[in-house]
UniProtKB/TrEMBL annotation:
Gene3D superfamilies, sorted: Ankyrin repeat-containing domain (1.25.40.20)
Protein's organism: Rhododendron simsii
Signal peptide extent: none
Name of protein: PGG domain-containing protein
Taxonomic superkingdom: Eukaryota
Length: 650
């Protein structure tokens, strides 16, 4: 008899669970009345009641009706927790559509507001974890109401954080709900300087999130997309990215004005007694411990974190609000210059360079390991930001150009400084780039070989086309039948140019293959030669396609205009695809071209006012020469500048 009863209960449980899954509200209410505990009947192996399941499945109407079924003697069951400690308010806090249901829950059982689950999470905290702004505001208002009524627990700061010190503000930043984080920061300012178990404030966490600022830039095209109401999915995604960027920037501006974690710094002086050679005794650490282990680690300032992770906006805002923060020194004795150079954040380096005096002072700082800013070019990075995929040759070129740029701003007496590992900046750079140098050689050889193969094929086709002229020769005279057609001249010129460009590119690529591949060759000569070879290769393909188009038009010259237009378009398609496929390579090579132009400019003398005056006087007749010209003003730039522009190499 008992077994028959159990079978009946199991069948009803199964039917009740199915009704909840298919959201059959009427059937759920009907089955609940058949159980003694009604909406508090447990239906899952995790001790979830009917109310739990209806709430986390977001069946708002069903939840409200189930709450109506709760009698006065069942009110204490509203605080029932499942196996992981979640109450029905915990489940309701995950959705904004359950705000009305949450109101009714708290009317019947106010104690739900303070219940914590096994993860030490309150309903308010859980609403933040899911980024639910409406639910958070409702629960916040309830807490404020209880505060005014003198509730002791509502006044506790512990309510807004877990036992591991992670606050609701930390959580909002981590889940990238920046609008909610700004709302929390406005309502609970005491949380701004709270630190989690890793000794990090919310601003420090935001400074580590480079992806939050990925939508920067874009110009008029971005503004058009972001202001459009068209329902294009791609545009909507771009609009969301822009909104996310704006929210993150607004949050950063607010936190920067309130956060004080940047104040504490390390007192590392200028190293006037640095060691400039590798002979004799050099202070070093014991083999049993690394230098990093000898120094107490701590969470660094938001400014240096933003520099490390490339959050340029945060750097700008901090330096705008607190310009003196630029002199912050971290636990390794490194300044913002050390960090920016190490992680290749040239835009941030330029911001510091524009500050003038601080740049001159920071450039001569040496860290605790006796590394100058020039050593940082050769330092290994842990790549906090995923770099843009780049070929080894271009990586090596960028490193070489960066080394040259930083060398210009590094004080001359520090150029040969050795660090605690007995290495100068040049030695460290050469050692760290050895593997990259080998990969760059292999990549450049492979690129030259493949490109030369394509060029030879194009030359073969162009050479054969010269002997198979369109229309054929006249049998009596031997001259081409279409000799006097306008497009025959086009065919001849483009075919000859295609052959010329192809063979020229082959010679250039052979020049690369026979190069000694010295390290410094990758800074200028090899990338320039490669760019020249690729240019001739693209031109040869273009000329070949124009020759093909001219041939086809000669053969069907009696057809209509639209036929010719279609043929022109078809002939340009391969050239366009070929050019687009080589565009990333070409743009990378153009950086070297810009750098080369600057190097060439150094050959020419600087224009000075005295030089201009002497030239002018030499061309004037003696009678018309002025006796004296006071305060000549030169329109030329000064011969040297304290802080050269460093962004161009990036």
């Amino acid at each position: 008899m008992a077994s028959t009863s159990n079978i009946g209960i199991d069948e009803r449980n199964k039917e009740l669970y199915k009704a909840l899954m298919i959201e059959d509200k009427e059937r759920v209410l009907e089955l609940c009345q058949q159980f003694e505990d009604g909406p508090f009947h447990v239906v899952t192996i995790h001790d979830d009641t009917v109310l739990h399941v209806a709430t986390y499945s977001r069946q708002a109407d069903l939840v409200l009706q189930l709450l109506e079924m709760v009698t006065d003697d069942q009110l204490d069951k509203l605080t029932f927790q499942n196996k992981i400690g979640n109450t029905i308010l915990h489940e309701a806090s995950t959705s904004d559509i359950l705000v009305e249901a949450a109101k009714k829950m708290l009317i019947k059982a106010p104690g739900l507001l303070y219940k914590r689950n096994q993860f030490d999470v309150t309903p308010l905290y859980r609403s933040v974890c899911y980024g639910k702004i409406e639910m958070f505001e409702f629960l916040h208002n309830e807490i404020q109401r209880l505060k005014h009524e003198g509730d002791v627990e509502a006044n506790s700061e512990d309510y807004y954080q877990q036992k591991n010190k992670t606050t609701i503000l930390h959580t909002a930043v981590v889940i990238e709900s920046f609008d909610l984080a700004l709302l929390i920061a406005n309502k609970y300012e005491f949380l701004i300087n709270k630190k989690d178990k890793d000794d990090m404030t919310a601003l420090q966490l935001l400074s580590c999130n480079s992806s939050a600022f990925e939508s920067k830039g874009g110009g008029w095209a971005k503004r058009l997309v972001c202001s459009s109401y068209w329902g294009v999915p791609l545009w909507q995604e771009k609009w969301k990215q822009n909104q996310r960027y704006e929210s993150a920037l607004s949050l950063a501006k607010f936190l920067i004005k309130k956060d004080t974690s940047w104040i504490a710094t390390k007192a590392v002086e200028d190293r006037d007694q640095t060691k400039y050679h590798q002979y004799g005794r050099v202070d070093s650490f014991s083999s049993s411990s690394s230098p990093e282990q000898k120094i107490e680690k701590q969470a660094t300032t938001p400014l240096l974190l933003a520099t490390k992770f490339g959050c340029v906006e945060i750097v700008k805002e901090i330096l705008s609000e607190y310009p003196w923060a630029v002199e912050y020194i971290d636990h390794d004795g490194r300044t913002i210059l050390h960090i920016a150079i190490k992680y290749r954040e040239m835009q941030i380096l330029e911001i510091v360079a524009q500050m003038g005096v601080p740049m001159q002072r920071l450039a001569r700082k040496v860290d605790r390991y006796n590394n100058t800013i020039l050593h940082m070019v050769g330092e290994k990075t842990d790549d906090p930001v995923v770099p843009v995929v780049q070929s080894p040759a271009f990586q090596l070129r960028d490193n070489l150009v960066l080394f040259e740029r930083v060398r210009e701003i590094c004080p001359s007496h520090l150029l040969n400084t050795i660090n605690i590992y007995k290495k100068t900046a040049q030695q460290l750079f050469d050692a760290e780039n050895q593997n990259l140098h080998e990969k760059a050689i292999e990549w450049l050889k492979r690129t030259a070989e493949n490109s030369s193969l394509v060029a030879v094929l194009i030359a073969t086709v162009a050479f054969a086309a010269a002997y198979t002229i369109p229309g054929g020769p006249n049998q009596s005279t031997g001259l081409p039948i279409l000799l006097y057609q306008p497009f025959f001249v086009v065919f001849t010129m483009t075919d000859v140019l295609s052959l010329t460009f192809a063979l020229t590119s082959v010679i250039i690529f052979l020049r690369i293959l026979t190069s000694p591949f010295r390290l410094n060759d990758f800074k200028q000569s090899l990338p320039q030669i490669l760019m020249l070879g690729v240019t001739f290769l693209i031109l040869s393909v273009s000329m070949m396609m124009f020759a093909f188009a001219a041939t086809v038009i000669l053969m069907i010259h009696n057809r209509g205009q639209w036929t010719k237009i279609a043929l022109y378009t078809a002939s340009c398609l391969p050239v366009s695809i070929f050019a687009l496929s080589y565009l990333p390579l070409y743009l990378s090579l153009m950086k070297t071209f810009k750098y080369s132009l600057k190097e060439v400019a150094k050959i020419f003398p600087h224009c000075t006012s005295a030089f201009v005056l002497s030239c002018v006087k030499s061309f004037l007749p003696k009678s018309s020469r002025p006796n004296q010209i006071k305060s000549p003003v030169s329109t030329c730039p000064p011969k040297s500048q304290a802080c050269p522009n460093l962004v161009e190499m990036a």
